[in-house]
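Incident log, support desk, overnight shift.

02:14 A customer reports that sequence design results differ from what the structure should imply. Their input is reproduced verbatim below. On-call engineer (initials T.W.) acknowledged and began investigating.
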């Protein structure tokens, strides 16, 4: 049974490789560097290129979607990490101080706040998307975006940040709660302030867990579909020039283009979408491999004596 999960993962990857094989041959390495996605003339007779039948004028490039995916995820991480660390430290250190002065009839504060953070993590993504369309996009369009259009990279990044903040916060909070009292008390005995205890004693001890939580959240951000699709603007064949530019991510583009791709009689468009999914898997794999190196200390710098 322990082999079922890796076996299922290998089966999915093998399917993507086999199904997108013709697309990989037809698109070549330019698939990653071109910015034009064109299904071609679906009503004319297909042409044969490299021994593969494709619609006349078909051209597939995903650089726009790779940039949209990475940019939105990285901006979301930049927003979410400070919020998550602050929330975890507040729940672990500040709330106990407040509970000491609460009346006896008042229930404990930290369990309620911790449960609230965890509940945010299980909110369906479409709910975040609806909130983004109804509240966030009009706000950005009215007060921030020069063009008056709130759909774009910034809206997608903020929605992603709200979705991944509870993941990092709950992971870090659990680790902070497990730090022994003797570590904190030893630091206080040496004259450290509360801020120094948290920043120089507690956070370094949970560094590995923090990195793991960030990577877990980044994986969620890279693969998020519906919420991003609803607020990103769905840009195609144009690179973003600012945080207000419309974008498309890999996952959201696959969903938005699947219906039109199925109208391709040669099935090359659908196979190219499968190749995009394979690229997304490789990006996620690279992110997790980098995190593994960071947590194992392979990339850490040793202090010279």
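02:41 Re-run completed on a clean worker. Output:
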């Amino acid at each position: 049974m322990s082999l079922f999960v890796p076996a299922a993962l290998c089966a999915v990857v093998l399917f993507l490789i086999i199904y997108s094989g013709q697309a990989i041959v037809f698109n070549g390495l330019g698939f990653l560097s071109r910015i034009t996605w064109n299904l071609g003339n679906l009503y004319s007779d297909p042409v044969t290129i490299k021994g593969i039948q494709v619609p006349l004028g078909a051209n597939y490039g995903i650089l726009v979607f790779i940039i949209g995916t990475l940019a939105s995820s990285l901006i979301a991480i930049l927003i979410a990490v400070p919020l998550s660390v602050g929330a975890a430290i507040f729940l672990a250190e500040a709330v106990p101080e407040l509970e000491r002065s609460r009346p006896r009839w008042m229930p404990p504060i930290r369990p309620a706040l911790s449960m609230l953070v965890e509940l945010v993590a299980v909110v369906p993504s479409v709910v975040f998307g609806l909130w983004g369309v109804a509240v966030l996009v009009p706000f950005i369009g009215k007060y921030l975006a020069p063009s008056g259009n709130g759909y774009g990279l910034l809206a997608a990044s903020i929605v992603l940040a709200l979705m991944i903040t509870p993941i990092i916060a709950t992971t870090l909070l659990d680790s902070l709660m497990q730090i022994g009292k003797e570590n904190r008390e030893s630091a206080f005995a040496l004259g450290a302030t509360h801020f120094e205890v948290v920043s120089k004693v507690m956070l370094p001890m949970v560094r590995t867990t923090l990195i793991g939580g960030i990577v877990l959240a980044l994986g969620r951000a890279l693969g998020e579909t519906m919420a991003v699709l609803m607020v990103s603007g769905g840009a195609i064949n144009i690179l973003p020039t600012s945080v207000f530019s419309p974008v498309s991510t890999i996952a959201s583009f696959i969903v938005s283009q699947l219906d039109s791709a199925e109208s391709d009689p040669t099935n090359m468009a659908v196979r190219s979408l499968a190749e995009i999914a394979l690229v997304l898997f490789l990006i996620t794999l690279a992110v997790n491999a980098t995190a593994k190196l960071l947590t194992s200390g392979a990339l850490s710098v040793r202090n010279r004596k």
